[in-house]
Design a protein that fits this description.
78% helix; 0% strand; 169 residues; 8 helices; mainly alpha
Length: 169
């Protein structure tokens, strides 16, 4: 079993720097680094200790490529697509609204079942929109600990949504 906290302390900074050279902003780099750690955490076939760094950096590189492709696609949208979007009905369908409400209920339940500290960190970041540094200062914990709580909380919420979608579909 991989000790996630040790791995995070060991590789997070280098991973963020690696990603910052490949994407437009440090915030995006931090998000992609967090996603790489999340993918490692949820991986069924986690690499052994020697391959963990390579796995993280390979995952991060792929995430950066995907992010940049997506950004380029958004920037190169044609005038025709923009005209169609202007005439599109901005209201979601009744079915989409019902599905969104159900997924919101699932997320609320998932957040309610988070460990107290993880829930607190999650809500401070997602609802109060505090930065990780601000959360760390407010709670008197290390910024890396905040990130670990966020990664675990996000994994918990994603898992709950995936379970719900698997059962619904």
């Amino acid at each position: 079993m991989i000790d996630f906290d040790i791995l995070f302390r060991k590789y997070a900074k280098d991973l963020r720097l690696f990603l910052a050279r490949r994407v437009a902003s440090p915030e995006t780099a931090a998000d992609l680094a967090q996603e790489a750690f999340y993918r490692l955490l949820r991986s069924d076939q986690a690499p052994d200790a020697l391959d963990t760094r390579a796995y993280l950096f390979r995952t991060a590189a792929n995430l950066a490529i995907d992010h940049n492709r997506h950004r380029r696609r958004q920037q190169t949208s044609t005038g025709e697509e923009q005209a169609i979007a202007e005439f599109a009905d901005p209201q979601p369908s009744a079915e989409r609204s019902a599905l969104s409400r159900e997924e919101l209920r699932v997320l609320e339940q998932a957040i309610a079942t988070l460990p107290p500290r993880g829930r607190e960190v999650f809500l401070l970041h997602k609802i109060d929109q505090l930065s990780y540094a601000e959360i760390a200062a407010r709670l008197g914990i290390a910024k890396n600990t905040v990130v670990v709580h966020m990664v675990r909380s996000l994994a918990h919420c994603r898992h709950a949504l995936e379970r719900h979608r698997d059962n619904a579909g």
